[in-house]
Specification:
With 505 residues, the protein is of the alpha/beta class. It has three domains: 68 residues, Urease, subunit C, domain 1 (Roll), CATH 2.30.40.10; 300 residues, TIM Barrel (Alpha-Beta Barrel); 89 residues, no CATH class. It is built from 18 helices and 21 strands. Strands 1, 2, 3, 4, 5, 19, 20 and 21 form an eight-stranded mixed sheet that branches. A six-stranded parallel sheet has the order 9-10-11-12-13-18. Helix 7 links the parallel strand 10 and strand 11. Helix 5 packs across helix 6, helix 8 runs parallel beside helix 9 and helix 12 packs across helix 14. The longest helix has 16 residues. The structure holds zinc ion.
């Protein structure tokens, strides 16, 4: 046999949870897996790699990423590839890079201004063509984001959609699902998704159901109203005939809500009995990261970033916000908040540190940072339970999702949560340490994820499948990134192969 790459002497965890077996793996000149044999009697390959008895797995799939634009700006995708990730499901939390219309183009351009990518496309098809021409080291498989979709029809404003608007959204969604979007994502905590009523959500779910695809959601509430928010998604799935619902970054936010996890799992079981498949993803951290603007009270919360920046140009508005924010948030709240990224020169040296440790008044500092650049002002909130995190990761329906971006190694797009460089490797470590087998743990970062999002090419190692592979050491694989050094690469990832070519080792 002949091929371009022969990987010898490895234990194969094929991604489908089948028992480990010792193999040699031959990748053909087309970049696909040509053969898996115990021993090749005669085999010619351009490159030979000794796997030293390590684990050969499918290239990992990140079930929950936001690399829609960052992967185009940093096509080496170092933060992901260095943890073995060769594919990512992006377009999460309601935010995708399409559909683009005159209603949302300038907003999206502003939102992604950090990356310097010109948003020149309109549809999913055109976006995917653009991705192909960017030669990214990692494949991005996009969901269509509900917030982007809604804004494409009626901008980012408040209010319920009318019949005609829902119809327009449905036909755009239908188009995007027909040409490569893997499903629909909701971000019901964010504008303008926060304004969507059940009629709108249900109509869109029906379109997804017609395509046999999946809906995912960042819930309306992950804390106080967690149970109600889970119930809302399940009820609408049942009403619309949707067959698969995926809960994004499942968590119980806020100590008073830690006890709700059992009720959530009960609702999942009940939904399954009624015919809806339920899955979730999780990152291995108890700190979330989002824009600092989520801390804002009342009407401020309903402003999109562009409007917020404009409003805070007024000194009076700034003073008003400071007073309201001081009344709304306790000292303890700020103790749990870490400033991850800000472009403000006075505060940039404190990136990675607790916001309460910055000299000066904490509320005034927060408002200053928001006024300077709300889009890129990101904060981490330590509001989750470690015990629930492990419990969620251990569930057979939970797969790894970073909630992070593909980023370069040099930090040129600003600081980030350690999850961008460590979530998938860290998930694998926790899974293995909890006694979940290598085969099953690998399937939670590959095969299971591929089946949730109906990715046919990747996620399983078998002849004919694309040559996306990772060679790793199960004893040492782990995340090494933290908030002060978020760009630290993961450990234990020995070689990463994309389309039959070695891209990391
Ligand atoms: Zn989210």
């Amino acid at each position: 046999m002949t091929g371009s790459l022969l990987i010898k002497n490895v234990w194969l965890a094929a991604g489908d949870a089948a028992p480990l077996r010792k193999v040699n793996c031959l990748i053909g000149k087309d970049g696909n897996i040509a053969a898996l044999e115990k021993e090749f009697s005669a085999c010619a390959a351009e490159v030979r790699l000794d796997g030293r008895g390590l684990i050969l797995a499918p290239g990992f799939i990140d079930a929950h990423g936001h690399s829609d634009i960052s992967a185009l700006a940093a096509p080496e995708c170092f933060s992901k590839v260095s943890q073995g990730v060769t594919s990512e499901v992006c377009g999460n939390c309601g935010l995708s890079a399409f559909p683009v219309t005159p209603e949302n183009r300038s907003h999206l351009q502003e939102l992604y201004s950090n990356y310097g990518v010109d948003i020149s496309w309109n549809s999913c098809q055109e976006y995917l063509d653009f991705c192909r021409s960017s030669h990214c080291s990692m494949s991005t498989v996009p969901l269509c984001g509900h917030n982007t979709l809604r804004a494409a029809v009626r901008n980012y404003g408040e209010g319920e959609t009318d019949r005609g608007e829902i119809e327009k959204m449905c036909s755009l969604l239908d188009r995007e699902l027909s040409c490569g979007a893997a499903g629909l994502s909701f971000g019901l905590l964010y504008t303008p998704g926060i304004f969507a009523g059940s009629e709108e959500i249900c109509a869109l779910m029906r379109i997804v159901a017609k395509h046999g695809k999946v809906c995912a959601a960042h819930l309306r509430s992950e804390g106080e109203k967690l149970v109600e928010s889970v119930q809302e998604m399940i009820d609408l799935s049942l009403e619309s005939g949707l067959k698969h619902f995926h809960f994004s970054h499942l968590k119980t936010a806020g100590e008073e809500n830690f006890g709700k996890i059992d009720k959530v799992f009960e609702l999942f079981d009940e939904a399954r009995r009624k015919g809806v498949e339920i899955t979730c993803d999780r990152y291995p951290y108890i700190e979330s990261m989002t824009q600092l603007s989520v801390a804002l009270p009342g009407a401020w919360k309903k402003m999109d970033d562009v409007k917020l920046k404009k409003t805070l140009e007024s000194a009076e508005e700034k003073i008003a916000l400071i007073a309201q924010l001081r009344a709304a948030k306790s000292e303890e709240y700020w103790q749990r908040c870490r400033i991850v990224n800000t472009a403000h020169p006075r505060f940039a040296p404190y990136r990675g540190k607790c916001i309460a440790d910055i000299p000066g008044d904490v509320v005034e500092n927060a408002v200053e940072m928001l006024a300077f650049d709300p889009v890129n002002c990101q904060a981490a909130f330590a509001t989750m339970s470690e015990e629930n995190m492990r419990n969620i990761i251990a569930q057979p329906f939970c797969v790894a999702g970073s909630d992070g971006n593909a980023l370069p190694s040099d930090g040129r797009f600003g600081k980030t949560h350690p999850r961008s460089f460590g979530a998938v490797a860290g998930f694998l470590r926790i899974s293995l340490d909890m006694g979940i087998s290598i085969e099953e743990s690998v399937s939670k970062v590959s095969g299971k994820t591929a089946s949730i999002f109906t990715l046919e090419d990747c996620g399983v190692v078998a002849p004919g499948k694309v040559g996306d592979l990772v060679l790793f050491d199960p004893d040492s694989v782990d995340s090494k990134a933290d908030f002060l050094a978020p760009e630290t690469p993961a450990e234990g990832i020995v070689t990463v192969i994309k389309n039959g070519e070695i891209i990391y080792n």
